[in-house]
Amino acid sequence: MKKKIILILTIISLTISSFLIHAKYLNFLSLNNFTLGDSFLIWAISLCLLIYYLKLDSKPQLVPAAITNEKKKNDDGSKDNNKPKISFNDVAGLDEIKEELQEVIDFINNPEKYNKMGAKIPNGILFYGPPGTGKTLLAKAVAGETNSSFFYASGSEFVEKYVGVGAKRIRTLFEKAKKEAPSIIFIDEIDAIGSKRNLDSNNEKDQTLNQLLIEMDGFNKNQTIIVIGATNRLDLLDEALLRPGRFDRHIYVGNPNVRAREEILKVHTKNKPLDSSVKIKEIAKKTHGFSGAQLANIANEAAIIAVRKNKTIIDIEDFNSAIERVIAGLELKHPSILFKEKRIVAHHEAGHALIGKLLKVDIIQKISIVPRGQALGYVLKFPDEDRYLHTKEELISKIMVLLGGRAAEEVIFNEITTGAKDDLSKATEIAQEMVCSYGMSSLGNIAIKEQYIKYNIDKIDKEIKMIIDDCYKKTIKLIKENKIILIEIANYLLEYETIENNELENIISKYETPIKSAT
Asked: Where ATP is bound, by residue (predicted)?
């Protein structure tokens, strides 16, 4: 709008000037007081307006404008400069990591005893691992334990299309941290600016990373500043960023084990009214593989469900519903499903549960054909204990459980449906890991790196197909030999829509000991 106004004024000024000059010297009008100096003045004003308009239209001016705005934004200080009140008491389940960080905290609080021994404070700490495991919370707790200023930044905040803006933001951030020392600089999703450099890298991104490397390696060692980074993709980070002297300590923050899950659930339920039927330890066992964020979500969902049902306390049914809500999605109240499809879904889910029971892969908690989210049915299961190592036979059994639904469809209906899409994807993923990562195929004891998979895709696909086909044949055999149990489970599902673990045990116990393996 401003540019348009300047352009219009320039045109009007030039037009008036030209008209008056012509009118004066061609005697169109009687302009006795109009002199040659007046015409030059009008032309000068027109020229100034034109130059100002051209400057407004010049694109390079956008860069300093962006930098100026960034300076005003950062000088505010209201966003970054604060001291969190969070301590390690608010962080549950990460005992080993908290113990590792105690040295850093003690160094900040009592630097003299370390200086006497010639020890230097770690320049940086890198948290890596899956999302929702508490990396940001740990960084805030370190700042809270040391009463340090906490400066939060996301890696994407430093990514700009204008050259030099990202590097300037890095410099500004570190300058503020120096003024407020001792301080913690936390860069979340650091892979956005710290990814590996190559010939095809963006120049602005490289300059931003270079500035970060310089600041981490070159700031005044007398000032207590610690950089904490967080990422879900450690493999993407540049080697220069990972070396000692920059990020001295790399700490993996993974999903909590059963004991840690219990502690996390206690933290998130301490201000909630719980019924005596709620056993936190049992809920922790049911939530194998869940992150801290998911556990917090379950506790919150349970409270919301209890309020929705006009309860004054939260009982175990609310927690079970919350777990199902997080795992399977929102329950559809009035689904329009044909009876034929309902029969197929019942036998499909019964196939999963039956194979899981026969092979004793996991503990079956619940089977349901009540649609949730995009799933027409589901089987809730959890391991009897946390496992970190799996044998080849255990992985084969997991694949067979995933294929149990499709095998049941084929045995009962002599046809297969699209319902096994997700099962096939997960089974293929396990088989690919067996071939490419675990050396559990005829290719031998080798691990194939991701960048070399495309050069061996035919061999890999052949091995994956062999594993899947062999598992499917075994699954079909098991389904056929225990067909009568499958049908009874499916009929129970059609009548009651859900089966709990004890009901499933009662159905299976009525028959002779079923075959537990297929050869």
From this structure: 129-136
Domain range holding 147? 79-252
Q: Is 459 within 8 Å of 443 (Cβ atoms)? A: yes
| Torsion over CA: 487, 490, 492, 495 (sign) | negative
Whether 349 is a known active-site residue: answer yes
Asked if residue 61 lies in contact with residue 11, where contact means CB atoms within 8 angstroms, the answer is no
Instruction: Map residue 48 onto helix, strand or coil.
Output: helix
- Among residues 365, 378, 367, the alpha carbon closest in space to that of 496 is found at 367
What are the distances in angstroms from CA 112 to CA 125, 146, 214, 261? 21, 15, 27, 38
Q: What is the DSSP string of 254-292?
A: ----HHHHHHHHHHHHTTS-B-TT--HHHHHHHTTT--H
Q: Give the pair of three-digit tokens for residue 167.
A: 């590097």
The label of the residue with tokens 């499916």 reads 490
Q: Contact 314/279 with Cβ under 8 angstroms?
A: no
Cβ pair 140, 150 in contact under 8 A? yes
- CA 143, 149, 152, 157 torsion-angle sign: negative
Q: Does the residue 515 lie in any domain?
A: no
Burial class (CB in 10 A: 0-12, 13-18, 19+), 232: middle
Pick the closest to residue 489 from 328, 299, 348 (CA basis).
348
Please enumerate, by residue number, every residue annotated as part of a binding site for Zn(2+): 348, 352, 423
**pLDDT tens digits, one per residue of 204-263:** 677 778 788 888 775 555 567 888 888 888 888 888 888 887 888 888 988 888 888 888
Binding residues for ATP: 129-136
Q: Which residues of the chain have pLDDT under 70?
A: 1-43, 46-47, 49-50, 52-81, 160-164, 198-204, 218-223, 332-336, 384-386, 512-519
Active-site hit among 157, 189, 349, 410: 349
Examine the domain organization and report whether 368 and 449 are in the same domain: yes
**354 and 314 in a common domain:** no
Concatenate the DSSP letters of all residues of 349-372 into one string.
Answer: HHHHHHHHHHHT-SEEEEEE-S-B
Would you list which residues are annotated within the binding site? 129-136, 348, 352, 423
Strands 124-128 and 498-500, sheet pairing: unpaired
Quick one: 94 and 38 in the same domain? Answer: no
Kindly state whether residue 333 falls inside one of the protein's structural domains: no
- The three state secondary structure string of 472-496 is HHHHHHHHHHCHHHHHHHHHHHHHH
The residue written with tokens 């940086």 in the block is 124
